Amino acid sequence: MHAWLCDNPIGPEALKWTELPTPEPQAGEVRVAVRCASLNFPDLLIVQNKYQLKPPLPFVPGAEFSGVIEAVGPGVTQLHVGMAVASFGGIGGFGSHVCVDARQVMPLPSGFAFDDAAAFLCTYGTSHHALVDRAQLKAGETVLVLGAAGGVGTAAIQIAKAVGARVIAAASSDEKCALCRTLGADASINYTSADLREQIKAATEGKGPDVVYDPVGGAMAEPVFRSIAWRGRYLVIGFAAGAIPALPLNLALLKGASLVGVFWGEFAKREPQQNARALNELASWYAQGRIKPVIEHRYALRDLPSAFELMASRQVRGKIVLSVD
């Protein structure tokens, strides 16, 4: 097998395309022949040694992938050789083969494309957990999605619309805002060319959003929290802007608002049955055509450095998918 090996986590430039022994699955594992993998922002952080997960060196990065089961380890009975699957395993996906815990594998229904499946679990799992579980979003409520043209942002727009909510998409360019509207956003805000609080006020008739979905962090967090509706829920997804904001807690008091943490990976481990139910609902919505990953850029897995360079430029809309040759 071949894989991108990280033995010095100083950035993507240190990754090496390496021939490695094909692994054998241990107890409770399956070996997957990878068809497609997707690039997520944590994949960049982990090879820069900036992510909370710090695997022992050397390791193969790549959290999210799809493919076909080639072998099963002892004790695995619910999965079989030849089954099409998707997985979010943390590491290992940027190679031709990977062994992964069978509990982290989702069997793919018939008709679920490998490229869509590789771009599905992390973004849609995160957004469903955030909006449906943590925020308890209801039909008719208004959701403000920050970083709305990115992977989790585009998933959040689609899930919020599937629930019956009104969506305001906030993004960094007119082109990104236009993409969000094609996905069903009811309104959009280019926060680089307009006063964000004034735009939020205008888009909500002064009420503010009931739910804020924030994978960005940074300087936008405080003005957006100041704009939230009474009893609003502010979802902390991540910090793509780099800076972790510090919010004055009196804002939560004044608005009767909730600051809600969202960590889908830990949720999936701690509450696997509830996560499985959520993934089943998402797979049903995919089959019905109500949700579909936005894949704007495709690369061969051998071209991973170019994909990382594009991601670092922060110009990605939707997801980047890599295909194994």
UniProtKB/TrEMBL annotation:
Q: Give the organism, scientific name.
A: Methylibium petroleiphilum (strain ATCC BAA-1232 / LMG 22953 / PM1)
| Top-level lineage group | Bacteria
Question: Which protein, by its recorded name, is this?
Answer: NADPH quinone oxidoreductase, putative
All copies of the Enoyl reductase (ER) domain together span 11-322
One molecular function GO term is: quinone reductase (NADPH) activity
The UniProt record lists the EC number as 1.6.5.5
InterPro entries for the chain = ADH-like_C, ADH-like_N, ER, GroES-like_sf, NAD(P)-bd_dom_sf, Quin_OxRdtase/zeta-crystal_CS, Zn-ADH-like_protein
What the entry lists under Pfam families is as follows:
ADH_N, ADH_zinc_N
**Per its UniProt record, what CDD domains does this chain match?**
QOR1
Keywords of this entry:
Oxidoreductase
